[in-house]
Structures are given as C-alpha cells and as structure tokens.
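Entry 14. Structure prediction run on the chain below.
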Amino acid sequence: MIRVLLVDDQPLLRSGFRALLDVEDDIEVVAEAADGLQGLALAREHRPDIVLLDIQMPVLDGIETTRRIAADPDLAGVHVVILTNYGLDEYVFDALRAGAAGFLVKDIVPEDFLHAVRVAARGDALLAPSITRKLISRYVTEPRRAGAGAGAQLKELTNREREAVALVAQGLSNDQIAERLVISPLTAKTHINRAMAKLHARDRAQLVVLAYESGLVTPHIS
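Output returned:
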C-alpha cells in the first residue's frame, strides 16, 4: 500500500487529489495539511511513502519543508513530490536540490497523476527526459547554480558508475542504461545504487542535479 500525505493550502485542490487517490486499491491518503509546518509534523507522525507538497506554502514554504524532510534520518523513506502551478518555475530546481524526488504540474491529467505517485513510491525520479533537458538548460547554466564540490564528489565513483550517472541525468531508465552500456538491468541498478550511496543522493533526481552541477553532463540549449 502506498501511503500519501497531501500538503496544500487550497482545500478544493486537496479534495480533488484525495478523490483520485482514495479510489485506488493500492493507495491510501493518511493525512492532509494546509501549511508546510503542519505537513512536516504529519510527515514525522505518519511517515508516508509520498508527500505531495505545494511549492508555495504558508508558514513554511515547500523548499524548506522538503529540506527538513530530507535532512531527517527518520524520514529517509519519504519521497517528496512538489506540486506547482507554473511548470518550470525558478523554485523547482531549488526543490530538487533540497531533496525532492520530482515535481508535478497541478493540472496534470488524472491518469498521469496516479502513474506519477506510483513511480515516486518506487524511488524513481519524476523527470522525463524532455523535462530534464529544459529544467537543467534553464537553471544549471546560470553561474549562481554552480556546485563547487560536485566535481570532487564524482571522483569517488568508478568509470562505470560515472557512465551510469550520466545516463540517469539524460532521463534513461535502468533497462535503457543496461542496453546502452551492454550490461544487465540488475548490474545497471547496482551501479546506480552504489553511486547514490557514494554521493549521498536520496534518489535519481539528486543524481541528475549532481551530474549537471559537476559538469559530468553538459546541457544543450535549443
């Protein structure tokens, strides 16, 4: 059962998402919160699999709420998915750096919304290749986004692990990475998991951030 916490200051939006989730046999909404601080407290109380979190929250904003969840060892299994009205706004990348597993636009169609919840629960990043390219091209290339220590961190990886991380940053799945590197999907997953452990990355979304900040992958702006 996938356990979900809804955090949004708009009751109607929470009700809409809850209505979609409650009819699914494998998903349970464990609680709702109207601000970030309340959401953080409920995350610690219920320890859900997924926190669906509005990026612009009263009392405690979505980025700081995400950062506190990511920093809490007791919440290591909690995946934060950011909800936004604006698509690729300037806050999304900050949320990913803070520890979010990905983001969804609030007007997402129901089928895609339910699929996204299940993807996030598996620990996969909610970043399609096209979204990844747009996001990184827009923000990582700005000088203020550079991560000074990111390149040094990658020195801990083997060549194969670096190759796998670079392909994760391009939005490839484990199966696609395995095909590209001519290895088994299990071996691809092992390389990625080891890279995540060495880089202290919570999930694949954080690997994407590190790959671009370090210069391992260079964004191509169209």
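Residues 97 and 206 are 7 Å apart (CA to CA).
Filed with the rest of this week's runs.
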